[in-house]
Specification:
This protein is mainly alpha-helical. It has 19 helices and two strands.
């Protein structure tokens, strides 16, 4: 490729040859040229820095928040020992996953992420099918992750109200309303591309400050503390399975969710300079910060815990809120700490929306979704794929209706 123009490019496995027009090297930077070599044009500005990409990536994975939100699964299917050692196990696995994602993102920095890599690396006769299947699974996964986060934050809000109003009885529709409010509220943050990097910074710092406040406050205020045996050697099996091994595997849902969605940063590859370097840093940084925060957070909580059964059977429906109340002994204090988790959760929801919209947009750009021209349109004024964002959030809202019919569909 000369300095002044990009050559014709035919993407492997595609029937349509993509012809790249002459490009002035003074206008297009090296990142755009690399993107052109993969057959794509630079549709969005590269506003992100490595810290803001890390902010989005960690805000989505947010390991310590994941432990809080799915605590009921962990304490019922293994107890403290499951979470304490499960975090170490899943962190090791996530490190391997992160290294693989980093290597691929460095070689092929593309917003399509996994589905693009599948198309490039799979045998040619299977490439299109593998890419198509991967793209659909990835986008569906982002939709259901958004739904689970909205549910966790909505449930936390309703739980806080119940704690302050003991006569209030929680019904599914209360949580459903909270779910929809969180989904709609987070929607607007992803409508302005210039603000997203700053929002990534804010959500990262919000998460870390909230973590530190809870880490210090809960053990310091707890009237009594559990012994080391309870934290490091206490196994609980309330699953109904007679085999503890099965209960342990089921309980790993908690710790696995705490390290999920490591691919988020890869879908911002076209919005950050030098993505082949910055994306791997963001991915591995997410794993490291996630392990440190979630492990110490869990240990602090379990040393401060008094009544495990009380957490599972709490009338608030939010075990972590009940744990705060057990430790602090003040409803107001427990609600304040839960508010920090909710603020972190809203940051997680905003990152989920960023993730799902980029997946929808890039997959539609490659004609993997219905109405590709509509969904692959980038709003030039707002610098976001607004249509893909809107459609994804509408689907998340529809998925929320499942909660009205089945609590189990969302919580298992």
């Amino acid at each position: 490729m000369s300095e002044k123009e990009a050559m014709s490019f035919s993407r492997p496995g595609s029937d349509d040859q993509m012809v790249l027009k002459s490009v002035d090297s003074d206008v297009v930077d090296s990142d755009a040229v690399k993107l052109a070599e993969m057959g794509y044009t630079q549709d969005m500005r590269r506003n992100y820095t490595v810290l803001s990409v890390l902010g989005v990536g960690f805000s989505l994975t947010n390991s310590w928040f994941g432990i809080s939100a799915a605590l009921v699964t962990g304490i019922s299917s293994g107890g403290p020992i499951l979470i304490v050692y499960g975090i170490i196990l899943i962190a090791l696995i996530s490190t391997c996953v992160g290294i693989s994602l980093s290597e691929l993102a460095s070689a092929y920095p593309n917003s399509g992420g996994q589905y693009f890599w599948a198309n490039e690396l799979a045998p040619r006769q299977y490439a299109n099918f593998a890419s198509y299947l991967t793209g659909w699974f990835a986008w569906a996964g982002s939709i259901f992750t958004s739904a689970s986060v909205a549910l966790a934050v909505g449930s936390a809000g309703v739980g806080c109200w119940q704690l302050s109003h003991p006569d209030f009885v929680i019904h599914p529709w209360h949580v459903f309303v909270g779910y929809q409010v969180i989904n709609v509220f987070a929607f607007f943050f992803n409508c302005y591309g210039k603000l997203l990097p700053a929002i990534g910074h804010v959500t990262l710092y919000t998460s870390l400050v909230s973590f530190f406040v809870i880490l210090v406050t809960v053990p310091a205020k707890a009237p009594t503390h559990q012994n080391a045996k309870f934290v490091f050697a206490n196994f609980v099996n309330n699953t109904g399975w007679s085999q503890n091994g099965i209960a342990f595997i089921v309980g790993l849902i908690n710790t696995n969710w705490a390290f999920a969605c490591l691919d988020c940063a890869t879908h911002l590859a076209e919005e950050v300079h030098r993505p082949e370097k910055m994306i791997p840093i963001a991915i591995m940084g997410t794993v490291v910060i996630g392990f440190v925060t979630s492990w110490f957070y869990s240990i602090a909580l379990f040393f401060s815990m008094r009544d495990v059964d009380g957490l599972v059977e709490t009338s608030t429906g939010v075990p972590i809120l009940a744990l705060f109340y057990q430790a602090i002994g003040s409803k107001g204090g427990a609600i304040v700490l839960e508010a920090l988790i909710m603020a972190t959760g809203i940051g997680c929801q905003v990152a989920c929306h960023t993730w799902q919209s980029r997946l929808c947009w890039s997959f539609a750009r490659d004609k993997g979704l219905p109405f590709p021209k509509f969904l692959s349109k980038v709003d030039k004024k707002l610098d976001v794929p607004l249509r893909a964002h809107f459609v994804s959030c509408v689907i998340v809202a529809i998925v929320g209706c499942l909660y009205l019919g089945s609590y189990t569909a969302f919580n298992r």
